[in-house]
Amino acid sequence: MARSCTNLLFGQLTIKRFRRISPSRYTAMQECLLREVWAASGNDFLLPPSPRAELGNIAHRILEAAGRGELKGTGSEEVNERWESLVSEAEARMALSPLRRQQTPLSQSIPDFHVLRLRTCNKAVEIARDGHRCSGKLPKLSRRATGFELWVESDDGALGGFIDRASETTEGVVLSDYKSGAVLEMGPEKYSRELKHVYRIQMQLYAALYRQITETLPVRLEVIPLQGEPIEVVFEPEHAERLLLEAKKFLQVANNRIDAVQDGTMDTTVLAVAIPEYCRLCLFRPACSAYWDARQREIDARWPADVRGILEKSILLRNGKICLRIRQTDSPSLSSIVVRGVTDSVDRHPLLTSMPIGSGVAVYGLQRDYRSCDYIETQNTVIYRTD
Ligand code: SF4
Question: Domains, the chain, ranges and CATH?
Fold first, then answer.
């Protein structure tokens, strides 16, 4: 049974079968099933989500509200008020968590906070105005077939999710999804125009589900970034149907493997795919033995800047910061590393004062100083005891 990480302690994390696949998480499930099953089973994150992700949620909620017509009028005043209120709400929640309180205020932890605010509010005003212009002018399909936050589900319930917007145009129905972050793949070419694979799959699955429910084939799928024009997703109905079938099969296979973990035939590592690309963004690294095993096997890969070992020294410096020396038990040479700039505060690091020299310790979310080979605290740094 998982325990809250409010005091930065955690036990065995819970694992439950998936009830269904959400099109927005399907690609992530294909990457590392363990990460997704831990998240879907209701376990608390063990590392802080990025403050940008918090702002992304806020942006999404404002756009939804604009689409549902909750932001009355077409001016920006109401939109700005909603932004302020959602940001305050998020910051109050984050202040209660030892993992996240250092990320507040969001305006200081996110360098382009004001740019994101402006883009979100402009987009919300645009959506609210569109809603006003469109209302009553176009012939309506059934109530289920258009609107914001439209729930679509496969006939067997194996896949389901909310489409951000299904709108009726003179050509037919257009399905849209709003994204607050980067929408293009990071390719070798800086200005690659290719839409992220994950969004292409997500939209195709939405289209297949939409068709199943309404018996209407959308004429266009698009991803709408906060700034710039919508990006069209190439839509091939047969391909979308195939993806839907594949996802249903995937759910069966995934749940069979989860059953095997639950009945003890296999351990959780069979669900894990530990590679730097996936683990870097994973908020369950402290609980993942597959992650630490993979780091030992592939020591030269670009793993996140986490360290684990035995606490050898803890010194309070004149600048008020703590310097830790840790002997890395995972390193073949058992070398020691230094972690600098650690905040001397029980609020920030609840376990720091109760860790005697010789304790097992793991420090996550550091930054590597390549000149000195030391590590430095960041706003995402979290310290756990390992013994
Ligand atoms: S740390 Fe890596 S292997 Fe472990 S659950 Fe997360 S993504 Fe998967």
Answer: 14-36+245-304 (no CATH), 47-137 (no CATH), 139-235 (3.90.320.10), 305-385 (2.40.50.140)
